[in-house]
Amino acid sequence: MAAGLPERYLRQMRLPQLGALGQRRLAASRVAVIGAGGLGAPVLSYLAAAGIGEITVFDPDTVDTTNLHRQVLFGDADVGRSKAIAAAERLQALNPEISVRAEVETVTPANALEKLSGHHLVLDGTDNFPTRYMASDACEILDLPLVWGSILAFSGQVSVFWGASGRGVTYRDVHPVPPRPGEVPSCSEAGVLGMLCGVIGATMAMEAVKVLAGLGDVLFGRLALYDALRARWDELPLARDPQRLAVSEVEDVMVTCGLPGPTGPATDELTVAELPALLAAGVRVIDIREAHELAGGMVRGAEHVPMAELLAQHGPTDSSSASAALEGTVLYCAAGSRSASAQQVLAGRGISVRSLRGGFGAVEGSGIAVTLPE
Length: 374
What we know:
With 374 residues, this protein is an alpha/beta fold. The chain folds into two domains: 7-255, NAD(P)-binding Rossmann-like Domain (Rossmann fold, 3-Layer(aba) Sandwich); 269-371, 3-Layer(aba) Sandwich (Oxidized Rhodanese, domain 1). The protein has 15 helices and 15 strands. The chain has helices spanning 10-13, 19-27, 40-50, 83-94, 112-116, 129-142, 171-174, 187-190, 194-213, 253-256, 275-280, 307-313, 320-326, 337-348, 359-363; strands at 30-34, 54-58, 99-103, 121-124, 146-152, 155-161, 222-227, 232-237, 269-270, 285-287, 298-299, 303-304, 330-332, 354-356, 370-371. The strands form three sheets. It has an eight-stranded mixed beta sheet, with helices on both faces. α3 (40-50) runs parallel beside α4 and α3 (40-50) crosses α9 (194-213). The chain is globular and about 70 Å long. Residues 258-263 have low confidence and may be disordered.
């Protein structure tokens, strides 16, 4: 056993491609993981077990019961707790030899450079486009490698981006234009198998270790595609857009595409059991889903205003009369994530609304009257 290295790493150090030198590189590494959810759970578990010296966990969210089938860092006792703090405690118990720091403050375009600076590598396991663009932009500016993963239903994707001073491939070369609100469903809306999180998260951790230890053929310039139903991996080559200028500032995609990023749970939400009384009292209820999502119906008495349209109607310079008409409104989407984001965006503009926990998914089967859109 190499001097100064714990015996816990003996099996991986026997691999000649890693050895004692590679293990020391891992021990000297500082890694940032954005998101402690479905992908973050396996990513964090394997990085901690592998002996990454310092890990920073970024997640403003709290543990929900619906997380437990796939976010294997948490148990029933963690429901309601901060994901970042609960994950850090679990990782520290898993490997006392490393240092784990929890960050519950949301990473934003305004603070991303400060938050991510000082790390050697970043892993992005989030499920929304604004954070993905933000992480990619910040890593390109800081010249940091970014391990990125994405999951939905039975499919997953993994790649490693590195701006390399304006020469390498980044997330913007894969997705040059941010999608419109509602164009791509989230996992909470489309569903996801917990085991898929393990496959993609473990692959992300493997790529991170390869970058940090300097071994193997890293997924630079390649996009790995996994189809769980076919049990098959495919691969697409990636190239930098020669016309794309190097990123010089972290863009706020929430502003440019109208799609709110993660803001944590809603600060004022109601349960589906509270909805009938509010409807009976004449409280305004707005369905903010996209038109194509209404095929299964909508709450009887609700209005339909897609999220992007609603936020555009009530912008930062909105008139007081229009804002007053929205005050106290209940918003709902498919599963509660978009309405929570919209609620917090509007709160920042001085407009107070409420978000329906669980969205339309909680309404179905509850006995609340549902009608088909006109």
